[in-house]
Amino acid sequence: MTSEQVPTRDALDDKVNRAFAGRVVRKDLVRKVKVGANVPVFVLEYLLGKYCASSDEMAIQMGLQVVNDTLADNYIRPDEAQKAQSRVKEQGRHTFIDKVKVRLVDSHYWAEVTNFGHSHVHIADHYVRDFDRLLTGGIWAQIDMRWEYDEETKGKYPFWIEKLTPIQLATFDLEEFRRLRGEFTSDEWLDLMTRSMGYEPSVMERRLKLLFLARLIPLCERNFNLVELGPRGTGKSYAVQELSPYAALLTGPTTVANLFGHMTGRQKGMVMIWDVVGFDEVADLEKMPKEVITTLKTYCESGQFQRGQEAMAGYASIAMFGNTQQPIDVMVQTGHLFAPMPDVIRDDMAFIDRLHFYLPGWEVPKMRNEHFTDHYGFVVDYLAEALRELRKHNFTEIIDHHFALGAHLNARDRKAVRRTVSGLVKVLHPHGQVSREDLEELLELALEGRRRVKEQLKKMGSFEYYQTSFSYLVNETGEEHFVGVPEQGGRDLISADPLPPGTVYTASVSGDGTVGLYRVEVSVSSGSGKLKLAGGVAGDMKESVNRAFGYLQANKGAFGVAREVDTSDLHVEVIDLLGNRAEAELGIAFFVAAYSILRKAAPQPALLVLGDMSIQGNIKAVRSLSEPLQVAMDNGAKRALIPIANKRQFLEVNPDVLEKVDPIFYGDVRTAAFKALALT
Question: What pTM value is reported for the model?
Answer without folding.
Answer: 0.72
